[in-house]
Amino acid sequence: MKRYNMAINLAFMLLLMLTPSVVYASSNSNISEFEECYREGESKGIIKDGNISKDTFVEMCKESVFPAYLEAVKTDPTLTFEQFVADDNYEVPFQKKNDHPEVVTAEGSGRTAVGPFVNFISASKSYKMKAGDILICYGTGSSGRLVGHAAMATSANYIIEMPGNYRKIKGNSWRSHNARVVSKASFFKSHTKGKDYVAVYRNNHPIYSDRASTYAYRYMYKKDNPYYKITSNIFEKSPSYCSKYVVLAYYWGATKKSWGGGHRVGIIPPHQLPSYFSDSFVPSYKYKVTSY
């Protein structure tokens, strides 16, 4: 019996050791599918003018998008990878026709920026953050079934966010009051490593931006910090997650006129967050922050 138990334990340990390599192999074996998704994004006019290279797109798919898809398909077996990537705007920022974002640093000097939307502007220009600015992260990070991350500025120096890092509380890994306030320096240092960057969106109504950020701080952080869980109930304040948290700060704290999702239900992907605002409330893509 003792030898039998030892054999079972050894087999279990080997299974744990092999699991990561299986996932990694699955990602590598789908490179042709990743490239096909890239071409689809080009044909739809979403991937254009060098806003993301094919190599970068494939790398993102391998490192974060495909693993997130494997999580998503557990709850929706009919979901295809092509649909998942399309719902995530092909891993590029949502952009209105007249948006011309500048490439900047969050602080101090930065790299020289070359690209169709920046007119060879130097990235040494520093981003001046304002309350209500919506910050959407791009790169290799993901949380469960979501790719990227979303947060909101509460002032020139601080940001409120609801990250997906779980903390064990009384047996329920998701029951954690995850909303928190972090410094501008901490946030951008964390989300501009390597090729990672942060897309900054700014609402066209400053008064509503102030109201949304104030409401989030007072009523969605200090008073009622929601539990973290990714659910399909959009208007329920708790549980919540990063992108839903930002949308509801505007909806409940500024004006319900900001909602532009119509009868849409389900999960709000961080990279599609701007499309959930209505008409004049759709935020403008102002800055691409590449370093701190």
TrEMBL record:
Naturally occurring in which organism (per UniProt): Lactobacillus delbrueckii
Alphabetical list of InterPro entries matching this protein: Papain-like_cys_pep_sf
Signal peptide annotation: 1-25
Signal found in the keyword field: yes
Name used for this protein in its record: Uncharacterized protein
The entry's keywords: Signal
